[in-house]
Specification:
alpha+beta, nine-stranded mixed beta sheet
Length: 156
Amino acid sequence: MSGDTGGRVGVFWFVESAPGQRVLLLHRCQPCDVEAYGDMLTCPHGHYQLWENWRRRLSAPPPVQRLVREHEYEEWPRGRVVFDTARQRFIVFGDGQVYRHRLHDAVATAFGLPTEGTRFLRDAHYANSLPLSGGRHGGHVEVLGDDGMGNGGHRA
Protein backbone atom coordinates (compact mmCIF):
# COMPACT_ATOMS: atom_id res chain seq x y z
CA MET A 1 0.00 0.00 0.00
CA SER A 2 2.79 2.38 0.77
CA GLY A 3 5.11 2.79 -2.15
CA ASP A 4 7.81 0.48 -0.82
CA THR A 5 5.96 -2.50 0.70
CA GLY A 6 4.03 -4.11 -2.12
CA GLY A 7 1.71 -5.69 0.45
CA ARG A 8 -1.98 -6.24 -0.16
CA VAL A 9 -5.15 -5.90 1.90
CA GLY A 10 -7.91 -8.50 1.94
CA VAL A 11 -9.63 -11.24 3.89
CA PHE A 12 -8.65 -14.80 4.76
CA TRP A 13 -9.71 -18.05 6.39
CA PHE A 14 -7.79 -21.01 7.75
CA VAL A 15 -9.70 -24.17 6.91
CA GLU A 16 -8.82 -27.85 7.08
CA SER A 17 -9.10 -30.00 3.98
CA ALA A 18 -8.49 -33.01 6.27
CA PRO A 19 -7.55 -33.22 9.96
CA GLY A 20 -4.27 -31.35 10.40
CA GLN A 21 -4.09 -30.29 6.72
CA ARG A 22 -4.49 -26.54 6.79
CA VAL A 23 -5.44 -24.35 3.88
CA LEU A 24 -5.15 -20.57 3.84
CA LEU A 25 -8.11 -19.52 1.73
CA LEU A 26 -7.69 -15.88 0.82
CA HIS A 27 -8.86 -12.92 -1.21
CA ARG A 28 -6.29 -10.23 -1.97
CA CYS A 29 -8.01 -7.05 -3.00
CA GLN A 30 -6.89 -5.39 -6.22
CA PRO A 31 -5.20 -2.03 -5.44
CA CYS A 32 -7.78 -0.19 -7.56
CA ASP A 33 -10.59 -1.65 -5.39
CA VAL A 34 -9.17 -0.65 -1.99
CA GLU A 35 -11.34 1.80 -0.08
CA ALA A 36 -10.70 4.16 2.81
CA TYR A 37 -12.35 3.56 6.17
CA GLY A 38 -11.12 6.36 8.42
CA ASP A 39 -7.32 6.09 8.49
CA MET A 40 -7.47 2.53 7.20
CA LEU A 41 -7.34 1.20 3.67
CA THR A 42 -9.38 -1.97 3.46
CA CYS A 43 -10.89 -4.38 1.02
CA PRO A 44 -14.58 -3.63 0.44
CA HIS A 45 -15.42 -7.32 0.04
CA GLY A 46 -16.71 -9.04 3.16
CA HIS A 47 -16.24 -12.62 4.28
CA TYR A 48 -19.88 -13.57 3.70
CA GLN A 49 -20.00 -11.95 0.26
CA LEU A 50 -16.85 -13.71 -0.94
CA TRP A 51 -17.79 -17.10 0.51
CA GLU A 52 -21.21 -17.02 -1.16
CA ASN A 53 -19.67 -15.87 -4.45
CA TRP A 54 -17.20 -18.79 -4.36
CA ARG A 55 -20.03 -21.15 -3.42
CA ARG A 56 -22.01 -20.16 -6.54
CA ARG A 57 -19.09 -20.20 -8.97
CA LEU A 58 -18.42 -23.39 -10.83
CA SER A 59 -15.07 -22.10 -12.10
CA ALA A 60 -13.46 -22.15 -8.66
CA PRO A 61 -10.91 -24.97 -8.22
CA PRO A 62 -12.41 -28.18 -6.78
CA PRO A 63 -10.68 -27.78 -3.39
CA VAL A 64 -12.24 -24.32 -2.94
CA GLN A 65 -15.65 -25.50 -4.16
CA ARG A 66 -15.67 -28.41 -1.72
CA LEU A 67 -14.57 -26.31 1.25
CA VAL A 68 -17.11 -23.54 0.72
CA ARG A 69 -19.97 -25.91 -0.01
CA GLU A 70 -19.38 -28.06 3.07
CA HIS A 71 -19.10 -25.19 5.57
CA GLU A 72 -20.46 -21.75 6.37
CA TYR A 73 -18.18 -18.73 6.14
CA GLU A 74 -18.11 -18.06 9.90
CA GLU A 75 -17.19 -21.61 10.94
CA TRP A 76 -13.44 -21.40 10.31
CA PRO A 77 -10.87 -19.03 11.80
CA ARG A 78 -10.79 -15.91 9.67
CA GLY A 79 -9.42 -12.42 9.55
CA ARG A 80 -8.75 -9.24 7.60
CA VAL A 81 -5.62 -7.38 6.50
CA VAL A 82 -5.84 -3.56 6.44
CA PHE A 83 -3.33 -0.76 5.93
CA ASP A 84 -3.09 2.04 8.51
CA THR A 85 -2.30 5.20 6.48
CA ALA A 86 -1.54 7.30 9.59
CA ARG A 87 1.14 4.90 10.84
CA GLN A 88 2.13 3.49 7.43
CA ARG A 89 1.81 -0.14 8.48
CA PHE A 90 -0.32 -3.18 7.90
CA ILE A 91 -2.57 -4.58 10.60
CA VAL A 92 -3.89 -8.13 10.58
CA PHE A 93 -7.08 -8.65 12.60
CA GLY A 94 -7.92 -12.29 13.20
CA ASP A 95 -9.27 -15.16 15.22
CA GLY A 96 -7.04 -16.08 18.16
CA GLN A 97 -6.35 -19.48 16.58
CA VAL A 98 -4.30 -17.75 13.89
CA TYR A 99 -1.84 -16.79 16.63
CA ARG A 100 -2.20 -19.85 18.91
CA HIS A 101 -1.32 -22.12 15.98
CA ARG A 102 1.45 -19.77 14.78
CA LEU A 103 -0.15 -19.27 11.38
CA HIS A 104 0.47 -15.53 11.13
CA ASP A 105 3.65 -16.08 9.07
CA ALA A 106 1.56 -17.77 6.37
CA VAL A 107 -0.74 -14.71 6.28
CA ALA A 108 2.19 -12.31 6.10
CA THR A 109 3.81 -14.24 3.25
CA ALA A 110 0.60 -14.69 1.25
CA PHE A 111 -0.30 -10.99 1.47
CA GLY A 112 3.30 -9.79 0.94
CA LEU A 113 3.43 -8.00 4.28
CA PRO A 114 6.71 -6.55 5.54
CA THR A 115 8.30 -8.32 8.49
CA GLU A 116 8.98 -5.06 10.31
CA GLY A 117 6.06 -2.99 11.53
CA THR A 118 3.15 -5.29 10.66
CA ARG A 119 0.82 -5.67 13.67
CA PHE A 120 -1.14 -8.85 14.39
CA LEU A 121 -4.17 -8.36 16.60
CA ARG A 122 -6.88 -10.67 17.89
CA ASP A 123 -10.37 -9.51 17.04
CA ALA A 124 -13.39 -10.91 18.87
CA HIS A 125 -15.49 -10.33 15.73
CA TYR A 126 -13.75 -13.36 14.18
CA ALA A 127 -13.75 -15.59 17.29
CA ASN A 128 -16.74 -17.85 16.54
CA SER A 129 -15.09 -20.66 14.63
CA LEU A 130 -14.32 -24.35 14.47
CA PRO A 131 -11.17 -25.38 16.30
CA LEU A 132 -8.18 -26.24 14.16
CA SER A 133 -6.72 -29.65 14.92
CA GLY A 134 -3.07 -30.29 15.61
CA GLY A 135 -0.53 -28.66 17.81
CA ARG A 136 0.66 -25.12 18.11
CA HIS A 137 2.88 -25.02 15.11
CA GLY A 138 2.69 -23.29 11.77
CA GLY A 139 3.65 -26.32 9.69
CA HIS A 140 2.84 -26.59 6.01
CA VAL A 141 -0.10 -24.51 4.86
CA GLU A 142 -1.53 -24.76 1.35
CA VAL A 143 -2.57 -21.36 -0.02
CA LEU A 144 -5.63 -21.03 -2.27
CA GLY A 145 -7.33 -17.83 -3.27
CA ASP A 146 -7.94 -15.13 -5.77
CA ASP A 147 -6.86 -11.62 -6.60
CA GLY A 148 -10.24 -10.18 -7.47
CA MET A 149 -13.89 -10.43 -6.48
CA GLY A 150 -13.98 -14.21 -6.44
CA ASN A 151 -12.85 -14.39 -10.05
CA GLY A 152 -9.64 -16.36 -9.66
CA GLY A 153 -9.44 -19.25 -7.29
CA HIS A 154 -5.87 -20.12 -8.19
CA ARG A 155 -3.14 -21.43 -5.97
CA ALA A 156 -1.56 -18.33 -4.55
